[in-house]
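INFO batch 0412 | record 1 of 1 | parsing
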Amino acid sequence: MRATRLLDDDWGGASFQRAGDTLLVVVDTESEPGTFDDRVLAAVFDLRSRRPLSPVHSFDQPVRLGSLPRFGPEPVLAFTTATSLVVADMRDGSVLETLPLPDTLKPWRRHGECDLAVGRCGGRDLLFLHEHGEGLYGHWVRAVDLATGEPMPDLACSHYRYKEVSERLTLGHGYLAWPTTEETVEFWADGFSVIDKPFVYVQRADDGSWVGKVGLYDGVPGVPEERAVEIAHAAGRTYLAEAGTIVTLPDLKPVFPKEDPWVLVSRVTEWGGRPVAVLVRNPYSSQEPPVWLCHLFLDTDTPDVVVIPWEVPAEVHDLAATPDGTIVVSSAEGVHVIEVDPQEAARAGRAL
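INFO prediction complete | emitting tokens
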């Protein structure tokens, strides 16, 4: 096992986006008091070499990494303005194309408040927009066909949101997912309570058909701001992962008998041909040490939680894991890369 620091604490609380072996690290910078000049800083890395593929880019709005074959084999950066989608080169930030947004979308857009995802689904290059409403109402997921520039109402979905949580879109392996909350009534012997329960909504990306919703553990407030849930394909199955909740898609079947309330963030990948979850776990239910970096294999009914011997910094925010044994951790101290031997881990893990 080897650990190195990729970025210092100026990048504390960064979030990750992956496309193959390409990693986009994004962090929001706070404006000076009395100003409104928040910036989004983004840097692109090759996970195989750990080398940067770009200088630090600066944006006024959310930026996302996506694969659009029409622009070549490398991923691209995408962001929206009040009227357009801008596709940029991930290496130098140069604009590759500016695509006008349909007029029907613009009244719902507010600068800097619209999350997005781009990718190829069902043979089409698509843009998905998650448009924020006012408080409880007016939250929409909408889609645009990038070949025609036309909206795709069959892929749209409106929903309520009872509490502010991350509304990052995750597009991958034929699915689109996003976090939200619902007002839920819980009953017990002597009464009831009304809570804002966190959920993840899932639909198919190619036709908009509803897959279902995944309830997250009640003891957490929801997915943290700017973090996305994970959709991963490993060992022939597709998984959705967020903290202590990991389910298979499309059946939404939990891989554990119950959620693990001590998991802060989880990601799924494949090691040695086996599906594996990489977790940041705190058995004392806070962000203070000791916090453990762990892994466990998902192809057994009795998985062993294996602790990776690395001192995890405080305030872990995001996590990425790859089939070659690379683990990337975002915390208050910046971004670290941990390397483990995936073949050795797969051989040592308990199988059915």
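INFO post-check: Confidence is low (pLDDT under 50) at residues 31-36.
INFO record closed
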